[in-house]
Amino acid sequence: MEQDDPGEALTELRERQLGALELLQVAAGSGLAAYAVWALLLQPGFRRVPLRLQVLAAHRCGLRPAVGYELNPWLVGLARLYAWRAGCASSVSYHREDLWKVSLRDCHNVSVFLAPSVLPLLESKLQAELPEGARVVSGRFPLPTWKPVAVVGEGLDRVWAYDIHNGGPAGRAAPAFSSTSVPRAPDPQAG
């Protein structure tokens, strides 16, 4: 049996016309590859869309402005769709921006949903940028060195609330709160 030269085989493939069966195979293979990427990389983020849940929940609790930051354009689009379906599209906004490049100096209520590996870096950013009296709510994973003032929910729906005092997180313990008490608007009397 004769061995083909790889360069010769590649030239032959480039010159060959694809028939209907080959086109169907290419389409099926591409679809399978796209599904594999979806299942492995994107689906975990779509199972629960914390961005839309957290921003819409903040909006419903009266926190204004309600703004979400996300790099994944699919999640931003899905979050905007959920806001539209909830009738809040004109009151909440979602930006496809890097949280690490956004200033949080004017934020009094921050809700985050990030992987545990970046939470120590997030603690530093929040402590440096948030004003005194700000509240941070972390979904699914607690901040590693801060002591929460409230923990609400169980399992995947658990959230941890932290208050910023004197340039850092509060260290006081608090009794269990209901989920509606975790978000908090800034105190209008505070200077």
Verbal overview:
The chain is α/β, with parallel strands linked by helices and 191 residues long. The strands form 2 sheets. Strands 3, 4, 5, 6 and 7 form a 5-stranded mixed sheet that branches. The longest helix is centred in the N-terminal third of the chain and has 28 residues. It is elongated and about 80 Å long. The termini are far apart.
Topology summary:
Blueprint: H1 6-15, H2 20-47, H3 50-60, E1 66-69, H4 73-85, E2 92-95, E3 109-112, H5 119-129, E4 135-139, E5 150-152, E6 159-165, E7 168-169
Parallel strand pairs: 1-2, 3-4
Antiparallel strand pairs: 4-6, 5-6, 6-7
Helix pairs in contact: 3-4
Give a short synopsis of this structure.
The strands form two sheets. Strands 3, 4, 5, 6 and 7 form a five-stranded mixed β-sheet that branches. The chain has a two-stranded parallel ribbon with strand order 1-2. Helices cover 38% and strands 15% of the residues.
Number of helical regions: 5
Q: Helix fraction?
A: 25-40%
What fraction of residues sit in β-strands? Answer: 15-25%
| Overall radius of gyration | 24 Å
Identify the notable features of this structure and list them briefly.
5 helices, 191 residues, disordered C terminus, elongated, alpha/beta, two-stranded parallel sheet
